[in-house]
Hints:
Layout: H1 3-10, H2 13-29, H3 35-39, H4 48-60, E1 64-65, E2 74-75, H5 77-86, H6 95-103, H7 112-127, E3 130-134, E4 142-149, E5 155-161, E6 166-171, H8 179-190, H9 198-211, H10 218-234, E7 241-244, H11 246-252, H12 256-271, H13 277-282, E8 289-292, E9 304-312, E10 318-327, H14 332-352
Antiparallel strand pairs: 1-2, 3-7, 3-10, 4-5, 5-6, 8-9, 9-10
Amino acid sequence: MTEGKSILDEMNDRSREVFRRVVEGYLESGDPVGSRTLTRTMSEKVSAATIRNVMQDLEYLGLLGSPHVSAGRIPTQRGLRMFVDGLLEVSDLNEQDRIKIDETLGSNTSDVTGMLDRISTALSGVTRGASLVLAPKHEAPIKHVEFVNLGHDRALVVLVFADGHVENRLFTPPAGQTPSSMREAANFLNALIEGKTLSDLQTAIRREIHARRQEIDSLAHALVESGIALWAGDGDAPERLIVRGRSNLLSAAGGDEELDRIRHLFDDLERKKDIAEFLDLAQEGEGVRIFIGSENKLFSLSGSSLVVSPYMNADRKIIGAVGVIGPTRLNYGRIVPIVDYTAQLVGRMISDRK
């Protein structure tokens, strides 16, 4: 049993209702909720003084806070987490929202990047937040690998897949690379790749390098290791992340301080070296996950929430994720089914291409 669930179970009906109505009022308006407002909506007739006492108790528990000198209360991050885990009522997907998302697919579903870009734009438009779509790595078997020197600190690795797909990835090679060490590194990889996907190849390379450390030149060894790091997601791969809806978050910002936090969030997204951590966040279980504020280190300074869900290929393997970023006062009950539906839709579309 979670801590939040335990606290909810120990509350009486009045405390639970006051807490729920404060959170729901805040999520709807973004404003503090006062005791006089609650006297008009409570299921039982109680005085404003009684409600204020309950609010003080909830504040003592760390579930509500008092912004500035306002008499009203807003939920704390801890309170929002407890509400999401124990009291959130998730609505069914709105038919209009579903139609808007479906309409973005178009007829050319063979262009995965284009499809994901349209999905991301639609998700941002429907939710009025910022959308994130983590594109899948290409998982077809690799046919050929080549390294191309572009200068003393830049190199290109060219991956040719068995299905004809070609990817070019820039990276910083170890110092001192020579044409011969690049050829040796490519020959070493091409001797291992037959029938292997990127994931398979990473495992095989590590095993082979350990067993044949003396046989491969140290420069080529370092080049191969750099390539493995890149493929594993340790390199900068911004093309795999589609972000839409910056203007939505900026227009929803309530003041200069919040504007600065939103700008910081997008700067962090653009600079992030291992943006694939979104996939790690979603990978701990199927279905939608909600991260509030500092629960996700990427958004801890911006005070934002992330609603994210993985999507899977035909083999039920998680290959990407879709999500929505917004202020902590997101309409979670509406956003959750939208993200869930979009993730399932993307997974089906990608699986149907196989």
